[in-house]
Amino acid sequence: MQRIYIISGPAGVGKSTTSKMLAESFENSAYIEGDVINHMVVGGYLPPWESEASLELVWKNIADLSINFIQAGKNVVIDYVAFPEEVELFSQCVSSQVPDVEIMYVVLWADRDELLKRDAERIKDHQMGDRCLELVQEFEEKGVKQRYLYDTTHTNLSNLEQVMKEIKSNSAFMYLSLL
Predict the structure, then answer these.
(1) Which string of DSSP letters, residue by residue, matches 104-124?
(2) Tens of pLDDT along 112-124?
(3) Residues in contact with 75: Cβ distance below 8 Å, sequence separation at least 6, in sequence order
(4) Which helix (H) or strand (E) covers residue 102, if one does?
(5) Distance of CA 98 to the CA centre of its chain
(6) What pLDDT band is residue 165 in, cutting at 50, 70 and 90?
């Protein structure tokens, strides 16, 4: 059975690094970087946090791509900020087309000081600044269940292999529909 891994969390928690390494760990996999899908819109672009329509379009495209990859026998790893309500809609959409797929939802987490430190270490064009902390607050307000959280405060490249093993094996990350 194929799986879809939604690797989420605020900026600076290690979503991209973890997601890429996770996708590379499978023999048959696809990596979907939500920001790339988002930036496909050129004329009339609005950031997803400013436009519900933009965000909805990104998730529809991510769902369609995921379905295509699952039907081709690939595990899918999605690297994008995903709140519970988006995961629920995504799950409904995908499950209606490929009912046997397992969806894993992992919200990487780190303390605020660590997020700001990591953000400051990024190249200038990729720094998020206060947006890191805004995302933390948004995750807290949206009430992400503890079972989906994975603390990366003390994670570095040397122990990322352990993080991937935990993500693959921990059934707590199995997404359970709200319905």
Answers:
(1) EEEEEE--HHHHHHHHHHS-G
(2) 999 889 888 888 8
(3) 2, 3, 4, 5, 23, 26, 28, 29, 30
(4) strand 102-109
(5) 20
(6) very high
